[in-house]
Amino acid sequence: MTPTLVRHHRYADPSDPVDAGTRARDWAEIQERMLAPLYEAVYARLEVGSGTRMLSLDCGTGLALLIAAARGARVTGVDGDRERLALARERLLAGTGQESGGGAPRARLVDSVAAAAADLPAPYNLLTAFQPIGCADGDSEGLAPALASAVPLAARGTTVVLAGWGPPERCATAPVLRVAARLTESARAPRPQAGWRPALRDDLEDVAARAGLKPDGSGRVSCPFGYADVDSAVRGLLSTGLFDAAVRATDRAQVEKEVAEALHPHLRADGTVWMPNVFRYLVCVT
């Protein structure tokens, strides 16, 4: 059982009674593992290894970086969330060591693309944006500009990987995510665009076109969301930020209650929660 979700999760809502540190730890300990199969599939396809110099946008608490580093890659992660970045640093640098035999850092964690450009020993040859798009209106808006700022740091012809949710009929989590949209819309919150929407077939291709990237293949990966119990599932899902607008429109207790109810069809006899999902990735070149 392993995780990750979408792009609106970076900053905690001030009205949320859960502090930023707890939220980030819920993400790291419960939710981030869910996309590990996606990371593994992409790295195997691209033969990520000792010759890879990877820049990861919105790296979260660093699981995708850690897996790449274990394959021998030199990795740089960018994230604007200080709590998540601190956990990534704690996890990644402890696991890989800051220095390799060649003297260059094997792992770097920074808060901006500009910082990733500083003291760059060689251009990156792999860019990743693993936070999946395609389940919330507007969740791809910042991705194309972020990619545009990162591409100049890469070698010509560098591979870029984007990720997105699969079709809703292949994602058991989709009905649970609809809770956020329903609560937000029923309260006439000022930000309905943050609500759930079905993934569209060309979401990733649209982002690639806006960023000036050329698609060069794609794939689908099964990424089931598995949790020890309903409480863990609720905490993990709320740590993504997909329910922030609903919390603002109602309150956290109401959101937690309705998410828990939506999880009942996925509750197994042993108390665990299991939701099969399919995610899609697009391979591009600069």
What this model shows, in words?
This protein is of the alpha/beta class. It is built from eleven helices and nine strands. Strands 3-2-1-4-5-9-6 form a seven-stranded mixed sheet, with helices on both faces. It has a two-stranded antiparallel sheet with strand order 7-8. Helix 2 runs parallel beside helix 3 (63-70). The longest helix is centred in the N-terminal third of the chain and has 15 residues, at 82-96. The protein is globular and about 50 Å long. The two termini are 34 Å apart. The model is unreliable at 1-14 and 189-194 (pLDDT under 50).
What Rg is obtained from the alpha carbons, in whole angstroms? 18 Å
**Percent of residues in helices:** 25-40%
Supply the helix-strand structural class: alpha/beta
Residue fraction in strands: 15-25%
Mean pLDDT: 87
The order of strands across the largest sheet is 3-2-1-4-5-9-6
In sequence order, what are the helices and strands, one letter per element?
HHEHEHEHEHEHHEEHHHEE
Total strand segments: 9
Quickly count the helices. 11
Global outline:
globular
* Ends apart, CA distance between termini: 34 Å
Main pleated sheet: 7 strands, mixed
Low-confidence parts lasting 5 or more residues at pLDDT below 50?
1-14, 189-194
